[in-house]
Amino acid sequence: LTNCVCGPIVYPADTLESRTLSITDSIVAGDLGGHAASSAIAAGNVTASIAGTTIFGSASLAALEASNTIFTGPLSVARRQSGCVRFSYVPPGSQTPRRYRCQPDSAREEVTDPAAQAAVEARVTPRFSASAYGRPDYAQLAPDCPPEIGIGADNGSEMGAFSFLQQPQRAANMAASLDQYL
Predict the structure, then answer these.
(1) Are 58 and 30 in contact (CB under 8 A)?
(2) DSSP letters along 68-109, please?
(3) Considering only CA atoms, which of 138, 136, 125 is closest in space to residue 33?
(4) Cα 10–Cα 39–Cα 31 angle in degrees, nearest 5
């Protein structure tokens, strides 16, 4: 899947053969009505490569390579000794391969108090302008989204499906050149 919006992805569990799944710059929703409780990806026998994607709902995979991705529901990866999740938002309690610069892990690593860690986890949660399919601002990060998500991608852009737009870089370039023209 590349540059698309789709509903749930379900692979039959009774298949013995190994399968692969590649998702880039897309939105996958467990329920296109915007309810994040549904399963977005149910593919326990699939090796996935996911980049710059927003996933509304839970995901279950055999193995995973992910970057610049927002997982809104629990993520469960069976083979955690291989693969990597980098520059992504992964909900607390998810079972993943090694993580690199993921949120809320990076935001809470300096905090030792459990109550303060819970506060950091609550603060560093992606907020969307709209999570209901059909709205023009569907899956776009809200203006009050935490900066750890808004500029948390590997290139300094936002995490998720709209990472390729590089909105933070555009805003910084405009602010830098604005004084020159006013």
Answers:
(1) yes
(2) S-EE-S-EEES--SS-EEES-B--TT-B-S-EES-BTHHHHT
(3) 138
(4) 100
Q: What is the pLDDT of residue 28?
A: 95
Identify whether the C-beta of residue 52 lies closer than 8 Å to the C-beta of residue 160.
yes
User: Which residues have C-beta within 8 Å of that of residue 89, sequence separation ≥ 6?
Assistant: 69, 70, 71, 102, 103, 104, 124, 125, 126, 149, 152, 159, 160
Backbone angles phi and psi of 150, in degrees to 5: -65, -25
> What tens digit of pLDDT does each residue of 59-117 get?
999 999 999 999 999 999 999 999 999 999 999 999 999 999 999 999 888 888 888 88
> What is d(CA 125, CA 164) in angstroms, rounded to the nearest whole number?
21
Q: Report yes or no: 70 and 55 within 8 Å, Cβ to Cβ.
A: yes
Q: In whole angstroms, what separates CA 66 from the centre of its chain?
A: 9
Q: Is the dihedral of CA 46, 38, 75, 95 positive or negative?
A: negative
Q: Residue range 50-60: average pLDDT? A: 95
What global pTM score does this model have? Answer: 0.88
